[in-house]
Amino acid sequence: MHQHAACARRWRQTAVACLFACSAVGAQAAAYEYSFTTFFDPTTADAFDTRSVFEPVARLLLEDTEGGVRFTLSQPIHSFPAATSAGTFLQTLWLNGPTGQWASTGGVGLVAGTGRLSTPAVQDAGLTYNWRFEFASGSFAEGNSASWTVTGSGVTAASFIPSFGWPMLTLVDAGAPYNGNPGGALNFIAARPAAVVPEPGTVALMLTGLAALAVGVRRSRQTRPTVQ
Description:
The protein is α+β, with helices and mostly antiparallel strands. The chain is built from 2 helices and 13 strands. 22% of the residues lie in helices and 32% in strands.
């Protein structure tokens, strides 16, 4: 009887550990990352022509936060042609999402013109967007990043992942041969977000819970009474 009680207690403990670990992993899953590698090619007459590069010019991370979503946009140092030695600059991020209140939280700040649009803006290839996030001219250089939040009812990371269309990012000061547009402006798109891999600490927690469950199973087998 005592053995059965101790075994049941161990099972409860290990089950709770596994549940906690798996819940932590599930919480981490509400994050998505876009890589901007495809742009509308100004060197052709077809407005729908695109070209892709191996190295992303920017990355966008969307994460659930209390009451809404946190955005982190970064422009790594890259080899895409630039008009000057200062490199390229990020100007505008176009997205689709629900109504909410935005606030800058770090890095390059957003400026006037940022917000949800009353009338969707039409961009390259006829893609439309109802959110515009604007940065001051010449402020978002390579090697920099920006973070901000959008909060409100029903605002989550997933609510900014549309079932159609793609996020669009306007890069300026592009160099030859892609400098045909005014200001060397190019619109990059990111077709599909990648689910973010859980942090090492979260994975370790999950593995600890699974290991504890395995130990509980082994011990329960060792202490199981023999039927005569």
